[in-house]
Specification:
The chain has 9 helices and 13 strands. It is α/β, with parallel strands linked by helices and 317 residues long. 36% of the residues lie in helices and 24% in strands. Helix 1 packs across helix 8. Strand 1, helix 1 and strand 2 form a beta-alpha-beta unit.
Amino acid sequence: MRLCIAGASGAFGMKHMDAIEAIENATVTSVVGTKVDVIREFAEERGVPHYTTDLAESLARDDVDGVILATPTQMHAAQAIQCLEAGKHVMVEIPMADNIEDSRKLVEAQKKSGLVAMAGHTRRFNPSHQWIHNKIQAGELNIQQMDVQTYFFRRTNTNAKGQPRSWTDHLLWHHACHTVDLFQYQTGESATKVQALEGPHHPDLGIALDMSIGMKTGSGALCTLSLSFNNDGPFGTFFRYICDNGTYIARYDDLLDGHGNKIDLSDVAVSNNGIELQDREFIAAIEEGREPNASVAQCLPAMETLHRLEQCLEADS
């Protein structure tokens, strides 16, 4: 599988580069960046034969089967549609768009193309959350409540590597998207009731740095999500699953029970790296000609719920 990574030298582009190197039947043949000197140096360091600042140039190449988009959120939907229209499979990093209209356009473009289009909902693939999902599917667990904290310190416009960003991140459409999708994926239901509150908007960034979200499914499962860009460490997202048969705490690829005992996840998947497992699913779906887990169509309900949450925020302002 010959892949292009757009945004390859960024924080998440690097994670995908490392993941592809661990997958035996995949290689990166092209990388796309915004600064020619930076992407040239990156390509030379990583042994990638082609680099460019123009995605269309990569899409025109015969040695590119699929594209991974690790580009700014505001570009996701348009670039994903551009890839599909060029006849390339695409995986777009979370979120697939920052509004419901573009999300729907992307899903329609995928249906029209018949190609694989997948959203980067990594939480579906982290072994910690896979373990919970397998237990739910086997009828051994039911979720009573998910209590989730997503905390970073982002009072300036920087990325996960602490480098300046040319675009503004968003607590709702990016960071809440992970949990909204995971909650609906794990419960097998869409949220029937939602509520959302946000703190003051930052004078320079123009976004709220604090947010509180609540969701409830038809069966009564709850999700309580707190998000902040004001939190001065520790960083990341912590998931507490309160179930009818135990409590579990997940953080990325690790899982503990409610008493702090680590759960062995060695038999859950071929890797303990959620990004690698996500990329493996993308490649396998292309090779097998099937819909991937976390296809844009499967993830559209999360975008619909985000849209409803955004309406709550607008009503509260």
